[in-house]
Amino acid sequence: MRFFIAILMLAVLKMLNLAIAFLLELCMLAAISYWGYHIKTAHWLKLTAAIGLPLLAAIIWGVFLAPKSVLALDAGAKMGGKAILFAVAVLLLYHAGRTTLATWFAIAAAVNILLILYWKQHLSMPHN
Description:
Elements: H1 2-37, H2 43-65, H3 75-95, H4 99-118
Helix pairs in contact: 1-2, 1-3, 1-4, 2-3, 3-4
């Protein structure tokens, strides 16, 4: 009986990890937007950056990195691209003066990516 409970708990943890991955993707877009709005420039340019840069990141994500992306990359390239975009978000948060938030986001993203790789969840994501 304990064996089945352990298997069920592991399955729940894996599903939770994928849900956290989605939340981290949303946080990445929010971090990029936050930086865009807090750059020292004209207000109209801040708004353009706060809207345009996350939109650009979302397009890159959708075209190359999403599970059902338009251009199919192999699993390793997708995970590398995700790590790069998360790192960009961390650097932008740090540049905006949110060092503690940048640190926690970096830790959460790294743990999430490592668990995805360890559990081989990146290999089971849908492809075109």
